[in-house]
Amino acid sequence: MTVEIIDDSHKEAFVPTLSQQTAHDWIARWDVQQEGYLPDREDRFTALVDAVEAAAGRPDPLVIDLGCGPGSLAVRLLARLPRATVAAVDADPLLLSLGRSGYGHVRGLHFTRLDLRVPGWSDALTLDRPADVAVSTTALHWLAEEHLRAVYAEVASVLRPGGLLLNGDHMDTGDTSPMLSALEKLVHDRETGRRFAEGRPEDWAEWWQATAADPALAGLVAEREQMLAAAERDHTESPLLSTHLAALRDAGFAEVGTLWQRGNNRLLAAITPTRP
């Protein structure tokens, strides 16, 4: 993967808290950890970027990355579309610092720390035109339904007519199609078993435990713990496909459907209405 680097001095100053090599090492470890849950993660990334390239209608699309983490999706998108602009949003100080320190000079990539649960988050992006595409992977299921609905509605308000939203995640259909849901999970489990026949990589909890043990990350770990302690946590997530479909339709998206799927791993797509 190749990304284009430029002098970033014209943007708001950011002083890296980590060396670029340290950030890259932790991002690489993050990617491996994520693949433990998504053995076809790169295939989903490829399908998502294919869709952005096909639907944007221009070589320099404006893209919002919701729950961007350390920027794994954003840099893959920019490697394919180097003239794009990606407004990458996340609330986690540690993941954002990894992204900024590792990819802070990638042309067109702008990281912003925002909580998607707070209405009006898109105002802080100061977009100079409506976005062409909004993307997200393995992030929005963490939102309670009320917050998910508000996020989808706000995304719809900042996309251009005919704009595209793409959300890649595990989405369960057990509430509407229990037998198919069981089969989808079985397909996913079989793929995972084949991919990691020699053993699974470290999991989510182990990755975060490892960050806590790295002195270079101590300040960011403490900041993250403060954020989690201060956050309102209702322990409610939105794992059901039906919840996402209903929220997108109620937000005003004209067409909603699954663009890519393997087992219960989906790439959900939604398109805003075009002008009459």
What features would you highlight for this structure?
276 residues; disordered N terminus; single chain
Characterize the structure shown.
With 276 residues, the chain is an alpha/beta fold. The chain is 42% helix and 18% strand. It contains 9 helices and 7 strands; from the N terminus they run ααβαβαββαβααααββ. Strands 3-2-1-4-5-7-6 form a 7-stranded mixed beta sheet, with helices on both faces. The chain is globular. The chain starts with 19 loop residues before the first helix and ends in a 5-residue tail after the last strand.
The gist of it:
The chain is of the alpha/beta class and 276 residues long. The chain is 42% helix and 18% strand.
